[in-house]
């Protein structure tokens, strides 16, 4: 098989992407949350027009899978009736905002709404250029890709920070959205967008930093685990996937659903964890340490299935280690290094230790039955 292709852009609702199981439609919930009525409507639309499989992405968006081409217009009409469709592709593309699920009152939602409005008049940015509204007491989205970040300083003041730079500039809430768009304009003027894949961190690493950045953000907090939190009940999804039926049942609980980039949903205001099959609610569940892309046949570039194998290997994963199961060497589900990475190949599964899916494997051509023994061995045998 030839090297897997890199698209360089993310799908949307108005710009879907063709995958191995049909069209992939990505929804960007406004301010990072869905009302119960919206969640129920998305579940119905996913079942009626697609395969009923829904992914929660690493940027806290929802992807509806398996959409037939002739069902796309009806799906878009259904989502538009729920208030989830932008007026055009350009507006949809630039509204690339991830919002912390743990919010300081209503300020984060107001900031995200103001930012989305301001971005409607923003300059033409690279396709994956994104923003983070991370304004809880301490930053939580530091590990989530974003080029421009709204965070808290240690004093509690609102901070605007270019990704990759240790310092930010204090801004007033009323000027935060305009200042974020201004920082995006600075990025373009400073030469940070060669082609369509420019990123802020690369520009900062090259020595270009915006003026006026003199304040550090508050120390980041570690990502939370599933369980009950003051803001509500946080529930996990194995591999970030759920069925339309599961989403429908969550919607029926009557809580607003806040998206997260950690394969979890926050049921805002819920007093207890729901007892619904298919949720990951135990922080020690080994599935929380496993990342897997959709694999074959869902992805046309994948050399083999991933998620069924990953689930079967959960009990064999050594305590404390993370596992990434990738359908190809692109490693879309986990671009960074993992303790253990299984990569589907024409001859089976290759095992990479302490590396990325694109790195040289320590073992080649493992069958499904051999992978469990390979995971249990903490050190690769001599090559």
Could you state the order of secondary-structure elements as H and E? EEEHEEHHEHEEEEHHEEEHEEEHEEEEH
Measured as a percent range, the helix fraction is 10-25%
CATH arch. level architecture of the largest domain: Alpha-Beta Complex
How many distinct folded domains? 3
What kind of oligomer do you see?
A: single chain
Radius of gyration: 21 Å
Low-confidence stretches: 1-6, 379-383
Structural class: alpha+beta
Instruction: Name the average pLDDT.
Output: 92
CATH topology of the largest domain: Sulfite Reductase Hemoprotein, domain 2
- Beta-strand percent range: 15-25%
- Count all strands and give the number: 20
Q: Helix count?
A: 9
The largest sheet, given as strand count, sense and whether it forms a barrel, is:
5 strands, antiparallel
Protein described:
There is one protein chain. The protein is α+β, with helices and mostly antiparallel strands. The protein has helices at residues 36-49, 72-81, 89-94, 107-119, 176-189, 200-205, 244-251, 307-313, 368-376; strands at residues 17-19, 22-27, 33-34, 53-56, 62-67, 97-99, 131-133, 148-152, 158-162, 169-170, 227-229, 232-236, 241-243, 257-259, 264-268, 290-292, 323-326, 338-345, 348-355, 363-366. It folds into 3 domains: 17-86 and 228-268, Sulfite Reductase Hemoprotein,Domain 2 (Sulfite Reductase Hemoprotein, domain 2), CATH 3.90.480; 103-205, no CATH class; 286-376, Sulfite Reductase Hemoprotein, domain 1 (2-Layer Sandwich). It contains 9 helices and 20 strands. A hairpin with a 2-residue loop joins strand 18 (338-345) and strand 19 (348-355). Helix 1 (36-49) packs antiparallel against helix 2 and helix 4 crosses helix 5. It is globular and about 55 Å long.
């Amino acid at each position: 098989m030839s090297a897997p292709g890199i698209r360089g852009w993310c799908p949307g609702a108005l710009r879907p992407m063709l995958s191995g199981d049909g069209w992939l439609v990505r929804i960007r919930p406004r301010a990072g949350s869905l009302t119960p009525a919206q969640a129920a409507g998305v579940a119905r639309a996913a079942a009626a027009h697609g395969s009923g499989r829904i992914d929660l992405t690493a940027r806290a968006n929802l992807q509806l899978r398996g959409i037939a081409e002739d069902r796309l217009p009806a799906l878009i009409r259904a989502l538009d009736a729920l208030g989830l469709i932008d007026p055009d592709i350009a507006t949809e593309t630039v509204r690339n905002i991830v919002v912390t699920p743990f919010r300081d009152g209503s300020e984060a939602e107001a900031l995200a709404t103001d930012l989305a409005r301001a971005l409607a008049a923003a300059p033409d940015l690279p396709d994956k250029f994104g923003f983070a509204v991370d304004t809880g007491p301490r930053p939580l989205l530091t590990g989530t890709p974003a080029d421009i970040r709204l965070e808290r300083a240690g004093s509690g003041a609102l901070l605007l920070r270019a990704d990759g730079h240790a310092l930010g500039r204090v801004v007033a809430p009323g000027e935060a959205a305009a200042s974020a768009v201004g920082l995006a304009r600075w990025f373009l003027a400073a030469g940070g967008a060669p082609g369509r894949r420019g990123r802020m961190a690369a520009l900062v690493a090259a020595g270009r930093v915006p003026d006026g950045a003199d304040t550090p953000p508050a120390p980041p907090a570690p990502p939370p685990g599933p369980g009950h939190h003051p803001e509500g009940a946080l529930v996990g999804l194995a591999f970030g996937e759920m069925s339309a039926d599961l989403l429908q049942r969550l919607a029926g609980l009557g809580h607003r659903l806040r998206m997260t980039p950690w394969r979890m949903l926050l049921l805002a205001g819920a007093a207890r964890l729901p007892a619904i099959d298919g949720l990951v609610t135990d922080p020690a569940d080994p599935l929380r340490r496993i990342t897997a892309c959709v694999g074959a046949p869902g992805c046309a570039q994948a050399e083999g299935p991933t998620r069924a194998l990953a689930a079967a290997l959960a009990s064999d994963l050594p305590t404390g280690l993370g596992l990434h199961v990738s359908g190809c060497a692109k490693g879309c589900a986990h671009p960074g290094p993992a303790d253990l990475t299984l990569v589907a190949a024409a001859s089976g599964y290759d095992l990479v230790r302490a590396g990325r899916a694109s790195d040289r494997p320590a073992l080649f051509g493992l069958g499904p039955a051999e992978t469990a023994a390979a995971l249990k061995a903490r050190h690769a045998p001599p090559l």
